[in-house]
Amino acid sequence: MKKLTILSGAGISAESGIQTFRDGDGLWENHNVTDVASPEGWRKDRALVLEFYNQRRRQLHEVKPNDAHQLIADLEKYFDVEIITQNIDDLHERAGSSKILHIHGELFKSCSCNNKDLIYEQKNDINIGDKAEDGAQLRPFIVWFGEDVPLYQTAREIVKEADILLVIGTSLQVYPAAGLIHEIKDDCLLIVINPNETGFGYGQRAIVMKETATKGVKLLYDKLLDLV
Hints:
It comes from Chryseobacterium potabilaquae. It contains eight helices and eleven strands.
């Protein structure tokens, strides 16, 4: 089976009702991203950070995978599909995809604020005073701005082996994830689905579809099967 690697971003989850990370003014629900998604924000106001992600987690219980998630899962019948996602939701999993790498963390997990290797399932709120087994406060299992991306090297190796790289719903503005596109091999087919200009130079080799995730995947689906 050909290796189909998918790099997904906020645009695919937005169609399920999950708000994208930032809107045009750089705010996230009236919060500066550094206040809720950085080590500095955590040190400044843990309660604010925890409540922010508690709200995200509650919302995630209310939404469902959309047609793009479902069609991507269905492609496993025809391709060796691996998903590298910048998203912290579990919508790819719920749609039935089996190989997903969350490079920015997972909303339904928590970890010790002193040791990110102490990881726990977290379907409900995290409160001040909730402790890991090492006695430290639990925090969201999220890669914040200014933190290392420990799974980036794994993502690079996956992209290097891809026969097809399908980029969906990401502006490719957040690094290091945006750099993954440079790792493809010379004969890899590069397809980008994004309704907006990304400001990223794909070169002549990319097929760019200015569509939403769901419409783009629906349009592309049969064409991908022709490549099996």
